Amino acid sequence: LAQADLVILQRNFPGHVTEYERVVEQARIHRKPIVFELDDNLPELPEEHPDYDHYLVTRTAILRAVVEADAVVASTPTLGDYLHAFNPIVRVFPNYLNDRVWRLKPPVRRDTGVVTIGYMGGHSHSYDLQIVAPALERTLRRYGSRVAVKFWGVAPPAEIRDRVNVEWIDVGLVNYAEFAAYFLDQECDLFIAPLQDNLFNRCKSHLKFLEYSALGVAGIYSRVTPYERVVVHGVNGFLAYSVEEWEQYLAELIENADLR
What span, in angstroms and rounded, lies between the C-alpha atoms of 203 and 128? Predict the structure, then answer.
């Protein structure tokens, strides 16, 4: 710490109270500015979120760190506005793809006879998938063997988990660079990105849009703040809110390879 230019603290580290207080004490002794960086609104996890109980016990500690920091960095304007209520010095550093990790693949028309719908995300998105599960179930029933659904990471919703044309790949990679290299080699015809409409998700970034687009693949995204900031409906993606809209745009992309 004595040799640092500044001290950066992240996410739920302040929940380790003894270690947090020791770092802050040393930073103050050596007059090093403390920056707290947050890319998820962890204090506002909804109760249905799988990690709600885990972060509930650190909520006060995280907000304490926001208040005590010399400056706060957020990944989105919405998250920045939330944090500004606790600290007047907030800067927004938007998420981008790291050029040393990602490469951009051009769109490729795949004529395999089966249109593959893909979803990539961690276990924490299991509750987000519930908003699209009915549309996926109807789509699979409507198109049968002409459509497949592939999940990387989180398990498929229970409604469709046992279907023969639904595949689940538990990637198991925690190193982001290794994950990016793996994901860039995957093939898919269209992606989905459902998000429940709540404060926690409205504070998220559009990173999944960037990752999907790096593969040159079309996507359908929830009509919520992160994607509304970047997706021009019908131009670089579709924005869906209701189950009927999800089903409609899935059908349009399944049936129209040129549109994809």
Answer: 15
